[in-house]
Specification:
Largest sheet: 5 strands, antiparallel
Strand order of the largest sheet: 2-1-5-4-3
Number of domains: 3
Number of strands: 14
Distance between the termini: 106 Å
Number of helices: 20
Helix content: 40-55%
Strand content: 15-25%
Shape: rod-shaped
CATH topology of the largest domain: Rossmann fold
CATH class of the largest domain: Alpha Beta
CATH architecture of the largest domain: 3-Layer(aba) Sandwich
Length: 467
Amino acid sequence: MNEETYTIAENVLKPCDPKLLFKILDNMQEVVMVLDVNTKIVYVNKIYSKILGVPVDKIMGRRLDEIEPKSIAIETLRTGVPTHGRRDFLFSVGIDTVGSAAPIIEDDKIVGCICIFSNVSELVKLDKELQRTKELANYFRDQLNEREKLPQSFKEYIGENKQLRETLNLAAKVARTDSTVLILGESGVGKGVLAGAIHNSSSRKDRHLIKVNCAAIPENLLESELFGYDEGAFSGAKKGGKLGKFELAQYGTIFLDEIGDMSLGMQAKLLRVLQEREIERVGGNKTIKLDIRVIAATNCNLESMVEKGTFRRDLYYRLNIVPIHLPPLRERKDDIPLIADKFLELFSEKAGEKLTLSWQVTKILQKYKWPGNIRELQNVLEHASIVRTGTQIEVQHLPEHLRPAESEVRPVPSKPHDLKEAVANIEREMIMTALAESNNNRSNAIKALGISRRAFYEKLQRYKIDT
């Protein structure tokens, strides 16, 4: 303000009642606060009560350093340096503000401070939603890119095995609740597929399912990956900070795979999330409430780890509310033909022609122990579908470790008149193997053999097979 303008303003205000100044301040839409040198609040305008929800008479005369010790007004009063357009969070009332503060100086001494600020909580909320949307878009873009690199897998569980059906029935019941779920099983049994099925059958199915492989993220990055971080939290932290996977899963489900690989320190932090349903970002001091469902999975024996002291007992009990055990493939060999058919459908679609398995290959697949479970079966069939020479996958198309030794291969009869007997022997052996592998379940044996029910019973009678 130049000297001429200042003189005009002084002439206009001088003859007026001093109350005019307070009337002007009370009509402002921003909060105006004046402090004395001891941080005592000596004035606030009327809008203060509307914006902060605190009556003016309750705040007058109180010391701001006892209410908001980290506010910009306190900082300005102590340093004498004005601040302008700075964001501030008022912990006492839980709102975000943007404002300016300037020292009041008389005779070169700071005698007080004036602060003007506005409530920007709604804008901050919208900004966070926008950031969350961007982070989710980036997350799902990365997931899409990852899917394009990997072979397509089946969309739902395939099989009629009794143990598996009991497991899936339990999972279906749990899905209708909001309880924490712990999925146990060896690598490759489809724990991630089951987690997706639980989420998609829950009340949160219209929200996001965020997947985190705890074993794939370095220990020093896992905390910021899960909890996010504020700007300046560490060297290399991006401007504006970053939302963690827990915030991305807000109102939805987070799937923590390979939970047994978490360090004890991270286990303690996860326990707090499960107990309090809240987090703090790395480098931040603001508590963020969570409304999420947690599904965890591991191929480790957590009970054994608890006894050894490598897994927290209290966390184990928090996770183990509804444990779901997925059986390994070697315990559900009766499902192998069904699962193999599903994979062959996918590979047939890629090849543009229908692929089938020879009966010898089916027999080998059912005898093998499958340490890699369903994932290994998928890889074996994909290998065979690539190296095959026709539409039927034969023994020689399997990976070398699955092919039988030369001594195990049945010799072909040398005399033509042995053919009928040889075929009968093979048929009888195949039927008996199918019955053994299906625990004498005739319907499953018929399905595995690929023949009609009538033909099956005729052969039982012909070969005098007693079941």
